[in-house]
Predict the structure of Nucleoside triphosphate pyrophosphohydrolase.
Amino acid sequence: MADDSLIHDPDGGMPRLLEIMRRLRDPQTGCPWDIEQDFASIAPYTIEEAYEVADAIERGAWDELEGELGDLLLQSVYHAQMGAEAGHFTFDSIVRKIADKMVARHPHVFGDESRDKSAEQQTADWEKIKAAERAAKHEIRTLDGVALHLPALMRAVKLQKRAARVGFDWPETAQVLDKIIEEARELDEARETLTHVEVEEEFGDLLFVMANLARHLDVDPESALRAANAKFTRRFNAVEDALGGLGRCPDDSTLEEMDALWNAVKRAERKS
């Protein structure tokens, strides 16, 4: 009979969580679903949990954030357990590696470098340290090491930042705006003459340049789009509520009616 004392100890801390995951993955007595998982099958859950953490923060849902952070921590423990089973790494080695990295990347805090630097200088020093780390991993090309599975807009900005470091960048925001007009024109022409695959390519080019504009304006495109999504949701809900007050719903309304209500909602928001 397994000793469950640690499993049921509310003060067991990190050892308790690690033991729970080890038991869940036990090939003889664990959970069949957990046993079947691998790195690839768990990765989407890891990404989802990270977004749920970000969502709780954005909403200021501090009562939910504790649980969401726990869910995200569990994902790290899950990957650590699978890594240990395969002989790749352990939870302790993961902790040691990130701790070593933080010490190495902050010589002005943990070493003998001066803390008397501007935020810009510290950022520049950070990039130099990361560049040295990439070189040690034989990532010698400018764009090496930018994760493939980042959200597309985020990855676009990171790729552009890397290219800008070696001088491959428009010096003026106006030039980016000109490129957006050019790409939009090409997309408009593509609608009539090109295949769907080619239209998708032109649309991707336009999004890529829009991400570049965000970088030049010092705007986070992911954050900006999330805010636009929230605004659209808020305003459409208000339109739906207004229709409900008339005993109707969007399905039995015209676009003109809904557009008029939408504009009324916008005017009300500007006055508030």
Remarks:
- The chain is about 75% helix and 0% strand.
- The mean pLDDT is 91.
- The radius of gyration is 25 Å.
- Residues 223-271 form one domain.
